[in-house]
Amino acid sequence: MKRGAILLAHGGGGRLTHELVRDVFLPALDNPYLASLTDAAVLPPLPAGRPALTTDAFVVDPPIFAGGDLGALSVCGTVNDLAVTGARPLWLTWALILEEGLDAALLDACVAGAASAAREAGVQLVAGDTKVVPRGKGDRLYAVTAGLGVVPPGRDLDDRRILPGDRVLASGPIGDHGATVMAHRHGLEGAGLRSDCAPVNSLVEVLLASGVAVRAMHDPTRGGVATTCHEVAARAGVRIVLDETSVPVRPEVLAVCELLGLDPLYVACEGRVLIWIAPGDAGRALAVLHGHPLGQGAADIGVVEETAADRAPVVLTTAVGGRRPLDLLSGAELPRIC
Amino acid sequence: MKRGAILLAHGGGGRLTHELVRDVFLPALDNPYLASLTDAAVLPPLPAGRPALTTDAFVVDPPIFAGGDLGALSVCGTVNDLAVTGARPLWLTWALILEEGLDAALLDACVAGAASAAREAGVQLVAGDTKVVPRGKGDRLYAVTAGLGVVPPGRDLDDRRILPGDRVLASGPIGDHGATVMAHRHGLEGAGLRSDCAPVNSLVEVLLASGVAVRAMHDPTRGGVATTCHEVAARAGVRIVLDETSVPVRPEVLAVCELLGLDPLYVACEGRVLIWIAPGDAGRALAVLHGHPLGQGAADIGVVEETAADRAPVVLTTAVGGRRPLDLLSGAELPRIC
Fold first, then answer.
1. How many helices, marked H, and strands, marked E, lie in chain B?
2. What are the counts of helices (DSSP H) followed by strands (DSSP E) for chain A?
3. A246 and chain B in contact, CB less than 8 A
4. Rounded to an integer, what distance in angstroms lies between the CA atom of residue A273 and that of residue A84?
5. Strands, E, within chain A: which ranges?
6. Is it true that the peptide bond before B220 is cis, omega within 30 degrees of 0?
7. How far, in Å, are A42, B24, B280 from residue B236 at the CA level?
8. CA dihedral B128, B129, B135, B140 (to 10 degrees)
9. What would the pLDDT profile of A81-125 be if each residue is shown by its tens digit?
């Protein structure tokens, strides 16, 4: 759009809103459903299977970081939530809450990021809405995506299918996204840090197409690997034991975590998948993952055990051979990394 | 939830987020899809027809007003966007951006409002997300809904079906929502003002089931009746002539508009529908509308004419018999009414 700043009137529904849609959103997100500009996008019938629906709000600070931006992140987050449920992502919606005075160039960058991520994931942003709030009532821009996908017939990922003995795989090094954002915020950027933000749906499709016995998958975003394992342990009624020496963490991520007093096991990924798999298929699954650009750093990081009332649901076998519980943290440790 | 204030940690994805979901969202929005608490809600196959998808962001100030609240408004807005496209609304997602320090009682009230509106509309909120931003980076709470519905086979509402001679119906008095919110903001509340916020899907179903020849429908939200008519005139390639004496406006709404210098034709409704209909069916359609609780104030407010390059696309025939163009305004007139 023309260089300048976002005005309250850009969210009023009148002439300036129409110009914003025509000049910024439609050219970047080009598709006939969005271009119909009516109250709801009417889509072709879905392929066979069960529809899957999800939503995510994105308030990351800063909105542009090494390896991504708030727009790309919002598309990847929703695509990935669908993919790990076994759904093929199809259509997304995208709502923006802009702060009065927002630099139009920053909006352009995030729209371009969203468009690029959508192309990479093979999805379309078919409906949107934009509101503008007064200065001091927002923080540049917030985005909320919702996504519709379809779980093909016969596919049934569910944490309740996880059994003692199953292996836990990570599709790559962990914590890159959260460490990158926190480093930006503390003036520590550089030194090879880069968000892992990426749509994982093609990786998931390749893995499921290989025929390995995947029980369930999750993307370890907010709260990281440890929090995701807590949620899975509770739903599956099992205990998850991670092996510290097997969990892949880049040295740059480890360095930032040490500086900021963070445990990488609680730091968000935005382009990684945790996979629970039958023990006999773990090796074959790793080989499949290693053959995909997003899975080259995949590793077997742990095992599922029987639960017991007197034992922590998620534990880490440390490098020196001890076991320490990974507690569920309160949530104040890493605000606004997504 | 326990009386208190929202903390940053409620949005961190850890223990406090889990408690918020368990104590506030799940009890109020009770349904098995949301309760699965996984990355995406996996739903039963859709009924036959074309899926429709939409999204809306809600930043209304104040978040509670006579006749509604931000939660109820967010559900009604999305249900209505689906309904006027001819879709039967089925499933909604709901994402919240909370400001640190938000009074928990205000959150409870908006969650209750959303739950109540969803019950009235016959939809379920099946997926959600909550983020918390620091004090001064939000304004109590913002909500973003997305909605999935299905347009039944054979139903085809489209502005391009509108023809010269068609009548324009309004399902009730206009401007109640916007006038109520603006009155609150200027300390003018009272005196019978009340938002029209309501889900219109049952009204739309009754009308379409009656067999009258509806060409298209729209809900005149942001920008009001005049802005909606502009959008329709552009898409349909027609001119729309409204009759000032036929447009129903409550005296309380007119009084607030006169005090604040607003034209009710530009003030948002959140429970009204504009209906474009074949001229011979207008009378029968009005009778159907009058038989529904939400359509008792329905009126025939105008007519569609052929467009011409030198004539304004939307005009008003005034009480004294003149014609004045209703221009598309810039959008700064009524900020944050939805």
1. 10, 14
2. 10, 14
3. no
4. 7
5. 41-42, 50-58, 64-65, 68-69, 88-99, 124-133, 141-151, 167-170, 214-218, 238-243, 274-277, 299-306, 314-317, 323-325
6. no
7. 17, 45, 20
8. -10
9. 999 999 999 999 999 999 999 999 999 999 999 999 999 999 999
What is the band of B3 on the pLDDT scale with cuts at 50, 70, 90? low
ipTM for this prediction: 0.97
Fill in the DSSP letter of residue A279: G
Mention every residue, 6+ apart, whose C-beta is less than 8 A from residue B257. B175, B179, B249, B263, B264, B267
| Token pair in block for residue A297 | 């750093």
Beta-carbon contacts below 8 Å between A and B:
281
On whether any CB of chain A is under 8 Å from the CB of B208, the answer is no
The partner residues of A203 in beta bridges, in order of sequence, read none
Q: What distance lies between CA A253 and its chain's CA centroid? A: 18
A315-332 residue pLDDT tens:
999 999 999 999 999 887
Helix ranges, B51-200 (H):
70-84, 104-121, 176-185
Of A14, A42, A221, the CB nearest to B330: A14
CA–CA separation, A149 and A123 (whole Å): 10
Look up tokens 């119909």; give the residue: A36
Using the structure block, give the residue that is written with the tokens 């790309």. A72
Q: Quick check: A159 and B50 CB within 8 A?
A: no
Size of chain B in residues:
338
* Cβ contact A37–B227 (<8 Å): no
Helices (H), chain B: 15-20, 26-28, 32-35, 70-84, 104-121, 176-185, 201-209, 224-236, 251-260, 282-290
Statement: residue A2 has pLDDT above 70: no
Q: Give dist(CA B162, CA B160) in Å, integer.
A: 5
Distance from the A230 Cα atom to the nearest Cα atom in chain B, whole angstroms? 10
- A182's enclosing H/E stretch is helix A176-185
In this structure, the strands spanning B167-170 and A214-218 are unpaired
Beta bridge partners of B314: B240
Helix (H, G, I), strand (E, B) or coil at B333: coil
The beta-carbon neighbor of B95 closest among A57, A149, A331 is A57
Tokens linked to A27: 């050219």
DSSP state of A103: B
- Asked whether A256 and A329 are in contact (CB, 8 A), the reply is no
Chain A closest-CA separation from residue B322 CA (Å): 25
The answer to whether residue B2 scores a pLDDT higher than 60 is no
Amino acid at A295: G
Question: What is the spatial distance between Cα B16 and Cα B14, in angstroms, rounded to a whole number?
Answer: 6
* Token code pair at residue B290: 């009058």
Burial classification of residue A64, based on how many CB atoms lie within 10 Å of its CB (0-12 exposed, 13-18 middle, 19 or more buried): middle
Do β-strands B274-277 and B238-243 pair in parallel, antiparallel, or remain unpaired?
A: unpaired
